[in-house]
Specification:
CATH superfamily of one domain in chain A: Methylmalonyl-CoA mutase
Oligomer: heterodimer
Radius of gyration of chain A: 24 Å
CATH architecture of one domain in chain A: Alpha-Beta Barrel
Helix content of chain A: 40-55%
Number of helices of chain B: 5
Distance between the termini of chain B: 16 Å
Number of strands of chain B: 5
Shape of chain A: globular
Largest interface: A-B, 41 and 32 residues
Strand content of chain A: 5-15%
CATH topology of one domain in chain A: TIM Barrel
Structural class of chain B: alpha/beta
Structural class of chain A: alpha/beta
Shape of chain B: globular
Number of domains of chain B: 1
Strand content of chain B: 15-25%
CATH class of one domain in chain A: Alpha Beta
Largest sheet of chain A: 5 strands, parallel
CATH architecture of chain B: 3-Layer(aba) Sandwich
Strand order of the largest sheet of chain A: 1-10-9-8-7
Helix content of chain B: 40-55%
Distance between the termini of chain A: 81 Å
């Protein structure tokens, strides 16, 4: 053994942690004591199922029902994704979670001239009601909980297609159970340039979905406030709280202005949070969010129905915490993050597949992600007791700290004039960009250790190579595009024209006029997603086609 | 010494721009001059910027699986403009298995997510230095 190598072993033996703060950067003490926690159990915590719900929204928590185990899924054609969803159900998934490709998300059809390279890449491609039938073929829509991830300006059309397919099967709207992401503000700073994500239209149709579902779909969650993507963009836990609550307030205000009563829709609002790598910080964050939501809904909005006070959330383990170097280590990261979700009382969970930083999940990677959830549910005992970390001096103190920090962020956004204005002025983008920059600088300077990426590195050629999800071939993409073009050619052109001109007319009846009943007729008549979105875009002052290539043949 | 000039952008319909924006700032910190053009860009817009800015390096970021076809198309458009001496880099969430195809398609370097900045900076300095020595 060389001297240098010997010194290395000695260093490792005596090494101590160098980052004495949470992953979000909050400083922590060596230990916590009773006097670090305020001693007012009823006011601060309450039992699980009691106001302010810090300890969980249900008294019996997972004894009453496990969290919903659902894995995000979407690629290729609707048939490809349908096949994978059935695989996931066969593996023991207890819900589904479908995501669309970017053309679909932005309201562009698969046969649009500029989207050839994007069809079926980031999610599944869906343009017509026939596609929705193929996507849902053989799935029991009255029995399954279906989560749909889509932008707010495409959401009402996608929802209309889902409702139309369910109606064809003889199902009542009230039987459908699920969630539609429909979070207009988040789509703007998590992905799309303004032309592709019209903020005013998204907010209008977002509230349309909220109103329609609140009135007709008692088992449906029409808004899923996406805190997760904010975190992925680089924010810390306090900002995840503050930004997502500020977005939620925008939607609440919009619904109230529409004439809905707070208790009519607040019980149907849900959040989609991140579980990052700092286990205890994440648990404290979920507890803080529950308490803050309960107080905000009761005290600021005057909600009287206890269900309005209950903060309900799904968790996506943090994709950004995963690295392609030594990729099997990601299975371990995901397991810790999933544990945080369960100890924190999540209602549903998506575990990232270990190949997240490499490609879309292979079938095996998807299976491991579900198995991770099942090991948590059936083997670890974590589901037996509600809020098992309640009473920990550290976790209680950190819960209080995150609440205070989250409120401070909320105040800063209020000072910007609220979230809508904070996005329009560019302030929100700046916050995200600066946070991401600081984070990465800490990684580069090794103030944050990421195992396999900036420490304990192995040369690429010696690294473990994992199988990769196969992408659709050019011929498959062409076939997909041709199918949509064919659908277009074969439909009753007169009926489509009539339906679209009615949609144009209804779109001009003002923001408060709900477009979903009309959209159900429009998609039934054979109009595509791109056409329906295009007509609504025009009514709200945007080009029919975000890429400026297409015009409606009227 | 004149700083190395880098043009960065995203050509596909992919909103994941955290990485490329952070990279732009970090490359700037390391002394390069960086122009980040944005996302959802037509290929021609980026190539025009490379010419206009007289950049030595152009980098595309992909996180959503559309890297192969875009890289192929971009490289041939870039070389068709006789920009042979421009260093063309590709980075992001890319399977290792695709690196040979990307290099064959015309990329000069491929950097996977998690690559330390230093590795990229050294690669750029070395290759741009070689170009200039030849010139």
């Amino acid at each position: 053994m060389g001297d240098a190598e010997h010194a290395g072993y000695l260093d490792a033996y005596f090494e101590k942690p160098s980052r004495l703060r949470t992953w979000s950067g909050l400083d922590v003490k060596p230990f916590y004591r009773p006097d670090d926690v305020r001693d007012d159990y009823r006011e601060r915590l309450g039992d699980p199922g009691e106001f302010p719900f810090a300890r969980g929204i249900h008294r019996d928590m997972y004894r009453g029902k496990f969290w919903t185990r659902r894995e995000l899924c979407g690629f290729g054609t609707p048939e490809d994704t349908n096949h994978r969803m059935k695989f996931l159900l066969a593996q023991g998934s207890s819900g589904l979670n479908v995501i669309f490709d970017i053309p679909t998300m932005t309201g562009m059809d698969a046969d649009h001239p500029l989207v050839e390279e994007e069809v079926g890449v980031q999610g599944t491609s869906l343009s017509t009601i026939e596609d929705m039938e193929a996507l849902m073929a053989g799935l029991p829509l009255d029995g399954i909980s279906m989560s749909i991830v889509v932008t707010s300006h495409a959401a009402p059309v996608i929802l209309a297609m889902y409702l139309a397919v369910a109606e064809t099967r003889g199902l009542e709207r009230s039987q459908l159970r699920g969630t539609i992401q429909n979070d207009p503000l988040h789509h703007r700073f998590c992905g799309y340039p303004p032309a592709y994500s019209p903020l005013n239209l998204g907010l209008k149709t977002g509230i349309d979905c909220l109103e329609f579902c609140a009135r007709h779909m008692p088992h449906w969650y029409p808004i899923n406030v996406n805190a997760y993507d904010l975190r992925e963009e680089g924010l810390g836990a306090p900002e995840e709280i503050g930004f997502s609550f500020a977005m939620a307030r925008t939607y609440i205000d919009g619904a109230l202005e529409r004439g809905l009563a707070i208790d009519e829709f607040a019980p149907r609002m849900v959040f989609y949070c991140s579980a990052h790598i700092d286990l205890l910080e994440e648990v404290a964050k979920f507890r803080a969010m529950r308490r803050m939501w309960a107080r905000m809904l009761r005290d600021d909005y005057g909600a009287r129905d206890p269900r309005s006070w209950q903060f309900k959330f799904g968790v996506h383990t943090a994709g950004v915490s995963l690295v392609p170097q030594q990729p099997l280590n990601n299975i371990v990261r995901v397991a810790f993050e999933a544990l945080a979700a369960v100890l924190g009382g999540a209602q549903s969970l998506h575990c990232c597949s270990y190949d997240e930083p490499i490609s879309l999940p292979t079938e095996t990677a998807h299976q491991i992600a579900i198995r991770t959830q099942q090991i948590l549910a059936y083997e670890t005992g974590a589901a037996n007791v509600a809020d098992p970390l309640g009473g920990s001096y550290y976790v209680e103190s950190l819960t209080d700290r995150l609440e205070a920090e989250g409120l401070a962020v909320l105040k800063r956004i209020d000072a910007q004039g609220g979230m809508y204005r904070a996005i329009e002025s560019g302030w929100a983008d700046q916050e995200l960009e600066s946070a991401a920059y600081r984070y990465q600088r800490e990684v580069e300077q090794r103030q944050r250790i990421v195992v396999g990426a900036n420490a304990f590195v192995v040369p690429t050629e010696q690294d473990h190579e994992v199988p990769v999800h196969p992408r659709a071939s050019t011929a498959e993409v062409q076939a997909r595009r041709e199918r949509v073009a064919q659908f277009r050619a074969q439909r009753d052109a007169g009926a489509v024209r009539a339906a679209l001109s009615r949609l144009a007319e209804e779109s001009r009846k003002g923001e408060h006029h709900n477009l979903i009943p009309c959209l159900i007729e429009v998609v039934r008549a054979g109009a595509t997603l791109g056409e329906a979105v295009g007509v609504m875009r025009e009514a709200y002052g945007h080009a029919y086609d975000p890429a400026g290539q297409l015009h409606l043949d009227a | 010494m004149v700083p190395i000039k880098v043009v960065l952008g995203k050509v596909s319909m992919d909103g994941h721009d955290r990485g490329v924006k952070v990279l732009a700032r970090l490359l700037r910190d390391s002394g390069m001059e960086v122009v980040y053009l944005g996302k959802f860009l037509p290929h021609e817009a980026l190539i025009a910027a490379v010419i206009q800015e007289n950049a030595q390096v152009v980098g595309l970021s992909f996180l959503s699986g559309e890297h192969l076809s875009h890289t192929r198309r971009f490289a041939s458009a870039l070389r068709a403009q006789v920009l042979d001496e421009v260093l063309f880099l590709v980075g992001g969430v890319i399977p290792r298995q695709d690196i040979p195809s990307l290099l064959a398609a015309g990329a000069d370097g491929v950097f996977l997510a998690g690559t330390p900045l230093e590795t990229m900076v050294n690669f750029i300095r070395e290759r741009v230095g070689e170009q200039e020595a030849r010139a």
